[in-house]
Design a protein that fits this description.
Helix Hairpins, about 65% helix, two-stranded antiparallel sheet, 15 helices
Length: about 325
């Protein structure tokens, strides 16, 4: 029995709401680092002062995400949970205490609209700080990862999640790689952004903020570099030149070696487990055929099939094998 405005944690609405929050968290995991890195050089402060906060579609989407995250906090305060005695707790006071001691600080920090609080600050440093604070939303990925443990028993689902994790980490590292080049570009002309501008024939002009390669060119090149580094390919056409870029490349190589050993090692084990049943069945059938051929079983017994279907070893052959001491 539940009181009014108490939501059961296994109700259809809660399952539907969890999927909405999962989609929002994935959106945050992709677009928050992108906006924090690749949109730092987008000088839109004047345009924002003219048309307001809603002139940028990303700002509207971020505001909507913040509102839904706040609604999720309210829902979590009214959602039942299972205690240590495997009993469903429905009392609001106990639910609130449990949530306050658990995920409430992370959810609250991830739901704060930092960009809206310090809007119109007029400072590039504050804009950079806002972009960095918005990455706090990524803390919700820890909670999502725990919810995805229920799919660990499905090999195909684990394989898909591992590949998505690999691409997501490469995306994050690409954003960091571009941020390093963007910060160092005013002080040096040997960075990877200047080399990219020279290769594409789009040189930077300090008097024109729109000069240089496009955001699309810079993101694709950064993602290409991180993926080639993580997979230990490294063609060398995009290479680090400054000390900061070289240090970051070393870190990417170390991360890539660990990811290659963990993710792709698990991929091999999952693929082997997916085909283990088929391999075991063919091995057993091969041994049965060899047994039939060796003992010259009559043709009538060879064609018999059990009621369970062709996937089962015939009972006569199984008994003969057990009597001969050959265990399947």
């Amino acid at each position: 029995e539940t009181t009014r405005w108490i939501l059961l944690h296994y109700s259809p609405f809660k399952a539907f709401w969890d999927w909405i929050i999962l989609i929002l968290v994935l959106y945050t995991a992709v677009f928050t680092p992108y906006s924090a890195a690749f949109l730092l050089d987008e000088h839109g402060d004047v345009r924002q002062r003219r048309c307001g906060y809603t002139c940028n579609p990303l700002n509207v989407a971020d505001l909507l995400v913040d509102v839904l995250f706040i609604v999720d906090i309210v829902i979590n305060f009214r959602t039942t949970y299972v205690d240590q005695n495997d009993e469903v707790v429905t009392k609001p006071v106990r639910i609130a205490k449990h949530y306050m001691k658990g995920w409430f600080p992370i959810d609250l920090f991830a739901a704060i609209p930092f960009d809206l609080l310090i809007f119109r600050s007029g400072s590039d440093e504050m804009a950079t700080l806002t972009s960095l604070l918005k990455t706090a939303r990524l803390l919700r990925l820890v909670r999502v990862a725990r919810k995805l443990d229920r799919y660990s028993e499905y090999g195909a689902a684990v394989l898909f999640l591992l590949m998505c994790t690999f691409v997501l980490i490469a995306h994050w590292l690409a954003c960091i790689w571009y941020a390093i080049g963007f910060v160092e570009r005013p002080y040096t002309e040997t960075g990877w952004l200047d080399n990219l501008a020279e290769q594409l024939g789009k040189a930077y002009n300090d008097s024109d903020s729109r000069s240089g390669p496009s955001v699309k060119d810079k993101y694709v090149t950064a993602l290409y570099f991180t993926l080639s580094s993580l997979t230990s390919v490294g063609f060398g056409n995009v290479s680090p030149n400054t000390n900061s870029e070289k240090i970051f490349s070393i870190c990417v190589m170390v991360i890539g070696s660990l990811m290659y050993a963990s993710i792709f090692g698990n991929v091999s084990a999952i693929i082997q487990r997916l085909y283990s049943g088929t391999t075991r069945y063919h091995t057993q059938m091969l041994r049965v055929k060899e047994f039939i051929r060796f003992h010259q079983i009559p043709g009538g017994l060879r064609q018999r099939r059990p009621a369970g279907g062709a996937g089962h070893v015939p009972r006569v052959c199984r008994q003969l094998l057990e009597e001969s001491g050959d265990n399947l």
